[in-house]
Input
Amino acid sequence: MAEANRRLAVSLDVSAVPEQPAGAGRYILEIAGQLGRRPELDLTLIARKGDSSRWRCLGAGARVLDPVPTRRPARLAYERSLMGPWIRRLRQPSIEVHHGPHYTMPGRTGPVATVVTIHDLTFVDHPEWHERSKVPVFRQAIRRAARVADAIVCVSELTAERLRVLLAPRGEVFVAPHGVDTGRFGPTDIRPRGGGRDAELLSAAGFDLSRRYVLHLGTIEPRKGIVELVEAFAVLARHDGDLDLVLAGLPGWGSGEVERAISASGLGGRIRRLGWVPDELVPALVRNAAVVAYPSYEEGFGLPALETLACGARLVTTAGTAMSEVAGGSAWTAVPHEVASLAEALDRALRATPDEVAARRELGLERSAEYTWERAATVHVAAYRCALSRAGRRSGMKARGGSSIG
Output
């Protein structure tokens, strides 16, 4: 019992999080903040050079070190060859478990146990959805994690099951769904800023609330289903002259396909591209949307869908995905890749009766309340303890002259 409750010294690699994070970057920010407040952990955050102040501002009780090069090729090379020995040399405290929260893990960690987060398997199953230069890097990283890591964290049951079927990982797999920040995302403006109400906040940012809008949140890239969303919106717009489409998110690779779809729609004036949106504006945008559309083909989790439910907003997403798994019956769903199905789902959400909207809203609020970052952090701590135990058994095998499974 004493061993199970003792403090653990854990390092968390936060060096891949960009200045304007989305998706996995948001997960790393949230989980780092939670883990830094856990009394059973001594947490060390490993950041890029010059990026340590951001992580200290989380307010968590973590040690922050910034040895990692800033440029991506150099960062990956550092992780492969130098990070492992560097972690092994750390003292006060000495690191027992290292966590790579974005597919990759360092080489030569020696006795330090390793945990890796696998967000989804699309780099293996659908390489065409990703930037070509990233595919071999992350495919190799995922396969290595399955082969070597002492424990693996997946962000949904769908990802965990696919990982087990596809790669049969040696380490134990833990499912830690994302949480929702209820201090920001709620059915009302629960933390007023800049005058209080959402309308005032959005107006101050220059956002026009005089027209209804369908909102998409997330990076603009092929697998998000945004081309189909533009085409589905064009179907609706023929009969609804008071409806706009708002795309909030940075352009990613392949965003030229979206631009061509917008041009072909002839509705460029009714499709607003906001780019990256500051965190304080996101809940207001969600709460005031006629519908939030998240028609991604596949996601590890799909955090914007959960945040939409927590705001009590109408959600349209894709069937058979992690998003529909989270939403249950609270969302309207469409078949991935199918414009007609997406247009129909959007139309049903927009035309839903007050009773249907109220029922789905209540269910969505109930579902979203089940997902907390605190609960996710608890699963991470369990994964760390499991990894440390497994690494200890592995070291014992080596000491007795047996073979290593790592």
In short: The radius of gyration is 22 Å. The chain has 16 helices and 13 strands.
